[in-house]
Design brief:
- With 332 residues, the chain is an alpha/beta fold.
- The chain folds into 2 domains: 140 residues, Roll (Methenyltetrahydromethanopterin Cyclohydrolase, Chain A, domain 1), CATH 3.10.340.11; 136 residues, Methenyltetrahydromethanopterin Cyclohydrolase, Chain A, domain 2.
- The chain has 14 helices and 12 strands.
- The strands form 3 sheets. It has a 6-stranded mixed beta sheet. A 4-stranded mixed beta sheet has the order 1-2-8-7, with helices on both faces. It has a two-stranded antiparallel sheet with strand order 5-6.
- A hairpin with a 6-residue loop joins strand 3 and strand 4.
- Helix 9 runs parallel beside helix 11 and helix 11 packs antiparallel against helix 14.
């Protein structure tokens, strides 16, 4: 990881995720009826987009929201990779550190209240880079200056007034300068936008392993779209397993070959002690405490690290169709 004595990860002028994303957000709003989503006014100003709570939403809405999460600096497309689980999301970014870690990563804790009525969400999207509440931003050396905050929340209800006030205050935007996109995990759009984090999951583990983010030049990744589950635990488990057992990432780096080879060996999910069972089972066993799960588990199943300095590529890990089938409820 970078440290203060080595300076920030990002140097020189960087693109604004908040500015690049607005055309995508306005397109989402314009096509709301076609996408089966709903746009409403937020109390006090701004707007909220329901992508699966009280409306059906859909796969295409999830694809577009994936690109919004990446701050307009990444693309998400669909294709088929193999017949067993045919629909695949492919994501790519020429600015993977900014798009994935400074925007897409769900790292801003937004909570209010206690007990059964408590609200808790992890905010993702370009609005995070306005609030810069996470230590990660100091390390990256990135702060956005857009005038509109766009956040994606993986929730099944609208945040309370106290959370809205916090977002406006911490992002330093006008009351009407907020767009919230709500994507329940159990919904089609929610499933797609979570699986669409496959490149971000790879970048997050790269960061956790201490590999210098400055040496990441470009990146792409893909994963199968999991069938949604009606209950939160299995829905969350399936979206994680789509990446852990079916995700493939290719990172383009500029470093010594030994470092590239080491990264490839350590990066796949199978390098974790908790690998080998559907995520819902692992989560239940630790009594739903994320902090008891090995953080090295969260990674794509298979990786390729291509070194631009030498032209060599290093690969590790493998897709596990058996565990995907078990997680995705095949035959049940």
């Amino acid at each position: 990881m970078s440290s203060p004595e080595h300076g920030p990860v990002l140097t020189g002028a960087q693109p604004s995720v908040g500015k690049h994303v607005m055309a995508l957000v306005e397109g989402l709003v314009r096509d709301a009826d076609a996408l089966r989503i709903k746009v409403d006014a937020l109390p006090g100003g701004g707007r909220v987009i329901d992508a699966g709570i009280n409306v059906p939403g859909g796969i295409e809405a999830g694809r577009r929201i994936t690109e919004i999460c990446m701050g307009g600096l990444g693309t998400a497309t669909f294709n088929t990779r193999e017949a067993h689980w045919p629909l695949i999301i492919n994501v790519h970014s020429t600015h993977p550190v900014v798009a994935c870690l400074a925007s897409q990563y769900a790292g801003w804790s937004l909570s209010h209240g206690e007990g059964k009525d408590a609200f808790h969400a992890l905010g993702s999207g370009p609005g995070r880079a306005l609030a810069v509440k996470e230590p990660l931003y100091k390390e990256l050396g990135y702060k956005d200056d857009a005038q509109h905050a766009v956040l994606v929340l993986e929730v099944d209800r609208q945040p309370p007034a106290e959370v809205l006030a916090k977002i406006r205050r911490d992002c330093n935007v006008p009351d009407d300068g907020v767009t919230l996109i709500l994507t329940p995990t159990r919904s089609l759009a929610g499933t797609v936008q979570v699986v669409g984090r496959v490149l971000e999951v790879a970048l997050h583990k790269v960061h956790a392993l201490g590999f210098p983010l400055q040496q990441i030049v470009d990146g792409s990744a893909s994963a199968p779209i999991a069938p949604p589950a009606p209950d939160f635990l299995n829905a969350m488990g399936r979206t994680n397993d789509a990446i852990l057992f079916g995700g493939v990432a290719q990172l383009y780096v500029d470093c010594e070959d030994d470092a590239a080879a080491d990264l490839a060996q350590k990066l796949p999910s199978s390098a974790s002690r908790d690998y080998g069972r559907p995520f819902a089972e692992v989560f239940k066993e630790v009594k739903y405490d994320f902090y008891k799960i090995d953080p090295m588990l969260f990674a794509p199943a298979r990786v390729v690290v291509s070194n631009l300095r030498t032209g060599k590529s290093f690969r590790a890990g493998q897709i596990n169709t058996e565990l995907l089938a078990k997680s995705f409820g095949e035959g049940k």
